[in-house]
Design goal:
mainly alpha; globular
């Protein structure tokens, strides 16, 4: 029996159970989309003439240009870096390919703003290198610096998706092209790249959405992009302009999604045979040297810098920033709440989507993916507007912040839950129904134990990404509640950088667990 989407299981027997499941999914979908509704309402309150003047102002044009430049620059460089690395670790005789594959993927575990923090304090003006060398060095800062840093920590998206496509590519196609006197580069250009283009586009989409929504790196490097300026305008109580900037940022994200969709679907029919490999010969040593340099820059450098600050001690200049285990507890507590709520919400949505072909089921599932495409700064601003104007009693409280996390990261839980439901053998469900078990009993005793691993994996992903979320946490931070990311931000804004050392190292360690979950879920083929 096929367990794909083409073979659906019945939602439930009885109109009542089916209707209840649909209503539950629809309610959850509406809750997830609701922040955008509140944001649109706030933007519409701006007088049309003033709104037009703000939208077409020179400052807005500069912000748009910087945001587009950042997104395009990061995306292009990630492709330039990720695709060759994928080829190098799959289609060549590079020594220790397994090890290099893992090391090339590991930058994903480091939040880009942590990398930006380390780079600015290492190579920036009056940074660690400058103080040691005592001579002016090229400064990694501004728009070019932000492009570099975000690229270094997002190229693995392109690397992993491209590598997966290369591993499933029929290598005999390349050999056939070579027998027709096509050179190695010509064979790859005409045979390989058309086959892996959708995979490259999928990775590039993730990179582009990350770049356009990244707040921490532009903030640390003082780049006037949408995310940073929205936060600044919010802090200056200029909510009207912040709302209009948010609407433009959403438009940019929508354009990115539209461009990716136009790339096309994956070509048909390739089977994973290895084919001949590219022999590097003497080039294997420069190749490994380049890979080692990349690992040093992206992984060793941040850990070394924060470790150096930690060994120096925190001193007494800012006692309020001194590390406390309460920060770790608060971060874990909020992330656990978000993971639990997201997992619970994901069950009816993922269940209905997997077992029903109705348009409503598909619509509700797609609606929950709003958080994937909407930057955290926009969700934060929308909930600030909602809480401050309609429900001041929950503004700057834990429930509202947890709701922001759920909206932002629920797609991770929905995806794993839906996949798990699709794998359930319908014969087991039908057998339970023949024993007169009701829909709820069947779900509790048969279906849920089978999908539990997927639900838990989705919750783990939500937990790990929530731990790193910066903009929504800053904008909705409950009064008196400090977390690892808020302390890192405070250390940056107050210029007491070394107080960020231990929180940053803890975040890197916790984030490292996400790679284990990622590799287990995606099941990338390792050679």
């Amino acid at each position: 029996m096929s367990r794909g989407e083409s073979e659906r299981l019945p939602v439930a027997s009885g109109n009542v159970a089916s209707a209840a499941l649909t209503v539950a999914s629809g309610t959850i979908a509406f809750l997830v989309v609701s922040p955008l509704i509140w944001l649109v309402l706030r933007a519409l309150e701006v007088e049309p003439g003033r709104a037009l003047g703000l939208v077409v102002s020179p400052r807005t044009a500069e912000i748009l240009a910087n945001s587009l430049g950042l997104t395009v620059g990061v995306t292009v460089l990630s492709i330039v870096l990720g695709v060759p690395l994928a080829i190098l670790t799959t289609r060549t005789d590079l020594p220790y390919r397994r090890l290099w594959t893992v090391l090339m993927a590991l930058p994903l575990v480091v939040p880009s703003y942590i990398g930006a923090f380390a780079f600015v304090r290492t190579f920036g003006e009056r940074g660690e290198i400058h103080s040691i060398v005592g001579a002016p060095l090229p400064v990694i800062d501004g728009l070019s610096g932000a492009i570099l840093i975000i690229t270094l920590y997002t190229y693995p998206y392109v690397f992993l998706t491209t590598r997966a496509a290369l591993l499933s590519l029929d290598g005999s196609l390349i050999d056939a092209a070579r027998t027709l006197n096509a050179g190695r580069l010509e064979a790859y250009r005409r045979v390989v790249f058309p086959q892996i283009r959708p995979a490259v586009a999928a990775g590039a989409l993730l990179v582009a959405l990350y770049a356009v929504s990244d707040f921490g790196t532009p903030a640390f490097m003082r780049v006037s992009v949408f995310t940073y300026e929205i936060y600044e305008e919010y802090g200056a109580f200029n909510v009207e302009y912040a709302a209009l900037l948010s609407m433009q940022l959403l438009a940019v994200a929508a354009v990115i999604l539209a461009i990716e969709a136009s790339v096309g679907s994956e070509p048909d029919g390739t089977s994973g045979t290895s084919g001949s490999q590219i022999r590097l010969g003497a080039w294997k040593w420069p190749a490994m040297g380049g890979l080692a340099t990349l690992v040093t820059v992206t992984l060793v450098l941040p850990v070394a810098i924060f470790g150096l600050w930690l060994l120096r001690g925190t001193g007494g200049e800012a006692p309020s920033l001194a590390f406390q285990w309460e920060y770790v507890f608060n971060s874990v507590y909020l992330a656990v709440l978000a993971a639990f709520v997201a997992s619970v919400f994901a069950i009816p949505v993922g269940y209905l989507s997997a077992r029903s072909d109705s348009k409503a089921a598909r619509l509700f599932e797609r609606a929950t993916y709003v958080g994937f495409a909407v930057p955290g700064i926009v969700i934060g601003l929308a909930l600030v507007f909602f809480g401050a104007n309609y429900f001041p009693s929950i503004y700057r409280t834990v429930p509202l912040l947890v709701f922001a996390y759920v909206v932002r990261f629920m797609p991770q839980a929905v995806g794993t839950t839906r996949t798990s439901v699709l794998q359930v053998d319908r014969n087991l469900v039908e057998a339970a129904r023949t024993l007169n078990a009701g829909p709820l009993t069947t779900f509790r005793r048969v279906t849920f134990p089978l999908i539990a691993p997927g639900v838990i994996a989705g919750g783990a992903l939500v937990f790990l990404t929530t731990m790193k979320e910066l903009p929504a946490t800053l904008m909705l931070q409950p009064i008196g509640v400090e977390t690892l990311v808020t302390i890192i931000w405070s250390a940056h804004t107050t210029v007491y950088y070394r107080y960020a050392a231990l929180p940053a190292l803890i975040l890197i360690v916790i984030s490292g667990l996400s790679m284990i979950v990622l590799l287990r879920q995606e099941k990338y083929r390792m050679e």
